[in-house]
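Now produce a polypeptide, keeping tokens residue-aligned:
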Amino acid sequence: MTENLPPCPKCSCAYTYEMNTLVVCPECAHEWSPADTAAEEAGNSGERVVRDSPSAMCCRTATAWSS
């Protein structure tokens, strides 16, 4: 199995692995979906989209919320 998985977006570790639909980093334990990461990179305009359900957009805000 020689898949090219992306490195971890948090710590840049190259030794990521798949677990169901997620990609997992063994060094920092970050878990993410490659589809979500690709969508964020494609539409990253500094604007934050808030959704009230997985597919319904309810508002947009230009200020980033603290996590």
Notes: The chain has one domain: 1-67. The radius of gyration is 14 Å.
